Amino acid sequence: MKKMFFTQAVDNALAAAMARDPRIIVYGEDVPLLRRNLLVRFGPKRVRGTPISESAFLGAGVAAAMAGLRPVVEMYMVDFLGVCMDALLNHASKLETFSGGGWSAPLVVRAPCGGGYGDGGQHEQSLWGWLAHIPGLTVLVPSTPADAGGLMTAALQADGPVIFLEHKLLSETWIEFLGSGGRRTVHYDVPPEGARGPVPGKWEPLPIGEAAVRREGEDLTIVSLGVGVHRALEAARILETEGISAAVLDLRTAAPLDTSAVCKAVSRTGRLLVVDEDYQSFGLSGELSALVLEAGLTFKYARVCTRTTIPYARHLEDQTLPNTERVCAAARRLMR
Amino acid sequence: MFVDLWSLYTLMLRSRLLEEGIAKLWHEGFISGEMHLGTGEEAVIAGIVAHLRDGDAMALDHRGTAALLMRGVDPVAILRELLGHPDGLCGGMGGHMHLYSKDILAASSGIVGSSGPCAAGFALAAQCLNPGSIVVAFFGEGAMNQGMLMESLNLASSWSLPVVFVCKDDGWAITTQFQKSTGGDLQERARGLGVPAVAVDGLDVVEVAEAARPAIQRARSGEGPTFLQAGCVHFEGHFLGYPLLRMVREPMKEMPGVGAAITQSLLRPGGSTLRERAAGIKDIAGAVLSTLRDPRRDAANDPLTRARRALLSDALRLQELEAEAEREINQALASVSAELPS
Fold first, then answer.
1. Ramachandran angles phi, psi of A254, nearest 5°
2. Strand partners, B296
3. Angle made by CA atoms A263, A269, A274, in degrees to the nearest 5
4. How many structural domains are present in chain B?
């Protein structure tokens, strides 16, 4: 089977969709350089650089989608959505309801997210919980190249606004652009199976809102997404040597959540451990516990999340973001 | 203020030496993420900061090291912050894009354009609590397309806030050239919002310092903001490891991978017409060629070289000054290097 790097897979799926659908255009800051391979195939009318004017170009993306285009709007980082949140919060997400169901904005917002490379708390956030909080937004967080390409393909066929988050530790281009910058003197804890992996010969849309079982287990269910899935898998391998059998469920989509897959997995093990790189309070981890409780299940619960602003110092950052050690410790506590 | 080239040159030189040391630490891998240096824009910073006094504030962008050092922050505290030490300027928690000093009312941010609202707020506080104090906002010309900065110019204008808006114009918004992303003239834009605008050669520290004087005087006396557009260069591009500079500095290393992927994509069936594809190629080639011809590659555009030339007449004094700056910064670098893992 063919193998691809993570961002290579996204761009490859995007190119395949662009070749089929002339309504797809791509724009954002520095896109001519970052997406140069798309630029030379699809030309500067469909692959554009923008001024540093997020409110204008994201807001324009919403309306361009309303008027028939399928824009892929790139944000430099998900953190920078803070500058232009109005376009998503008050416009893209509301349109379908406000129009009585007759009008939607099929745009894809593509943004790198996540930490683990020392860029500080303003440039390493995850924020999928913040986005998924808003009714009307679909939020995708793939953890492998195959899922990334498949979910991008699905996003480009979806009816409403989709946020596509690309973890920087998984992305060969972002970690090089913002992290190493060509150096060989730095090391990042990149999960190899997430950064490069097998991809299908032809991209097919993956169903949005469908979780994937990454590992079967009997004693507890670890639910995660993005890089957290790989930390969970590593933890599960360690826990196995201690006689603890952990299942790992990759949500792949933060909104809509695959509630039935989560409930099914938790009902089997009776223990739910959420590994979430996003903020702990008022987020995905609490939402999952509520959904499983609402389903009437009785279970033990723990979570490993980011609780504070992400520190700049690398050793503190590694402790703040969910790491394998913290996942193992939480699992052991659940088993007591 | 009397413009004293000796002290301005000292400010610039200390900053240059410190940032060259920071670049070394970055290349050696002791600094993990992005690093935006101010090498090339020292004259803009020095020419402004030299006018500041107690009570004045600074709103900084993601390139704030030079301004903090020139304002008197301990270079060791800066270095320790960049290395993530608990006794760094911000306890190792902020890092180079998020440097703060409450003592000297200085705040930085990695969000482009955010020095605008920050300056407006510092200035509002100055207007109410500390009349006569002023605020400097530093930002690049790319930030002039950010709504919050435009809104801040208007707010400062309508409230007569004591702000000097300093646009450090190197002609590039990361990898995007000014003319590809910006409509109209920036000074006209500021004037359209009621803010007087002045252009200045940002490579000439005396010119910057002299242009800053009336702007700062205007702010101090409560007459409102001024916009200074200072042309400058960034020797390292947007940040260390800047891909366009790597392509032109080390073409044999960087270009094969880039070229192969581009060629493959260019020849892929499905997509746009040949004419559109050619236009795409032209865009990329244009960015690389502009980088090749970029003034930042020309040593004649080094603001330090220019200032130094005027000081050569007193070679002995110059030598002493340079030796003292080197001694101080080397000592700071040595003190943090001694603690690094070997």
1. -85, -30
2. none
3. 65
4. 2
CA torsion sign, B48 to B53 to B59 to B63? positive
CB contact under 8 A, A80 and B111: yes
Residues B155 and B75 in one domain: yes
Q: Which two tokens stand for residue B31?
A: 């600094």
Mutual angle of helices B42-49 and B303-311, in 10-degree steps: 60
Q: What is the pLDDT of residue B339?
A: 87
Distance from CA of A155 to the nearest CA of B (A): 20
Say which CATH number the domain at B227 has: 3.40.50.970
What are the residue ranges spanned by the domains of chain A?
3-198, 212-335
Could you say which architecture CATH assigns to the domain A3-198? 3-Layer(aba) Sandwich (3.40)
Say if CB A140 and CB A199 are below 8 A apart. Answer: no
From chain A, pick out residues whose CB is under 8 angstroms from the CB of B86: 313
Residue B221: inside a domain, yes or no?
Answer: yes
What's A212-335's CATH class?
alpha beta
**Terminal alpha carbon distance of chain A:** 42
Supply the residues of A annotated as catalytic: 123
- pTM for this entry: 0.96
* C-alpha–C-alpha distance, residues B204 and B42, integer Å: 10
Closest residue in B to A124 (Cα–Cα): B33
- pLDDT tens column, A163-173: 999 999 999 99
Q: Which of B78, B245, B265 to mutate to test the interface with A (most CBs of A within 10 A)?
A: B265
CA atoms A282, A287, A290, A294: torsion sign: positive
Q: Is B93 within 8 Å of A316 when comparing Cβ atoms?
A: yes
pLDDT tens digits, one per residue of A218-269: 999 999 999 999 999 999 999 999 999 999 999 999 999 999 999 999 999 9
- State the burial class of residue B141 (Cβ atoms within 10 Å of its Cβ: 0-12, 13-18, 19+): buried
B342 lies in some domain: no
Most B CBs within 10 A among A4, A36, A177, A312, hence the mutation to make, goes to A312
Cβ-Cβ contacts under 8 Å, B31 against chain A = 118
Residue B37 is inside which H or E element, if any?
none
**Residue B132: which domain range?**
5-235+302-337
CB contact burial B199-214 (16+ within 10 A = b; e otherwise): bbbbbbbbbbbebbee
Q: Is residue B165 part of a domain?
A: yes
Q: Are B278 and B329 found together in one domain?
A: no
Q: Does A168 touch chain B (CB under 8 A)?
A: no
**Please, what's the b/e burial string for A247-259 (b: 16 or more CB within 10 A of its CB; e: otherwise)?**
bbbbbbbbbebbb
Could you read off the pLDDT tens digit of each residue along chain B, which spans 342 residues?
567 999 999 999 999 999 999 999 999 999 999 999 999 999 999 999 999 999 999 999 999 999 999 999 999 999 999 999 999 999 999 999 999 999 999 999 999 999 999 999 999 999 999 999 999 999 999 999 999 999 999 999 999 999 999 999 999 998 888 888 999 999 999 999 999 999 999 999 999 999 999 999 999 999 999 999 999 999 999 999 999 899 888 888 888 888 898 999 999 999 999 999 999 999 998 888 888 887 777 878 899 999 999 999 999 999 999 999 999 999 999 999 998 987
Pair (B281, B250) in one structural domain:
yes
Q: Are residues B321 and B264 in the same domain?
A: no
Identical fold for domains A3-198 and A212-335, yes or no, is yes
Residue in chain B nearest A32 by alpha carbon: B284
> What is the phi/psi pair of residue A251, to 5°?
-65, -35
CB-based contact B287 A312, cutoff 8 Å? no
